[in-house]
Design a protein that fits this description.
This protein is an all-alpha fold. The chain is built from six helices and no strands. The two termini are 19 Å apart.
């Protein structure tokens, strides 16, 4: 909800114009940074899409030759789509699933607990935000006049 439409009084009312002007831009910045972080993480996987087959099979995802390229595409192309705001909801939902698997991997499989899964939890939360919220007016979705 935008600060402009919020009925909640601010502790410092003089800040309302700043919040109102920047809320959409900050949301866009978060979407771009999160998307590009996924692209960066998926870049090594996309050049070798079957390279993670053994790793995904060790997590119980068989056959690895199916799941490994899907993981690579979700991180790389999904990250690109999130960054530019194209099909934001489905791309963020797919990324959220991948990140929840990494939470499970670090917390349970590796036995690292919260400290090992903390980063994945944070990224999964960001992805669920965009899976529910979608993109805003600073996106390809908005430019084509459609949102998924």
């Amino acid at each position: 909800m935008s600060v402009q439409t919020s009925n909640t009084p601010l502790i410092i009312p003089a800040l309302r114009p700043i919040y109102s002007r920047l809320d959409t831009l900050v949301e866009t910045l978060l979407r771009i940074v999160a998307g590009l972080a996924l692209v960066t993480h998926g870049a090594s996987k996309i050049v070798n899409p079957f390279g993670a087959a053994g790793m995904v099979e060790s997590l119980g995802f068989y056959p690895g030759v199916f799941w490994s390229p899907l993981l690579a595409a979700t991180e790389f192309f999904g990250g690109l789509m999130i960054a530019i705001g194209l099909f934001t909801r489905p791309a963020a939902f797919a990324a959220m699933i991948v990140l929840l698997v990494t939470v499970w991997f670090h917390w349970v499989v590796q036995g690292e607990g919260y400290s090992g899964a903390e980063k994945s939890i944070l990224w999964a939360a960001i992805m669920i935000f965009f899976a529910i919220r979608g993109s805003n007016r600073h996106s390809v979705d908005a430019k084509i006049g459609r949102q998924f």
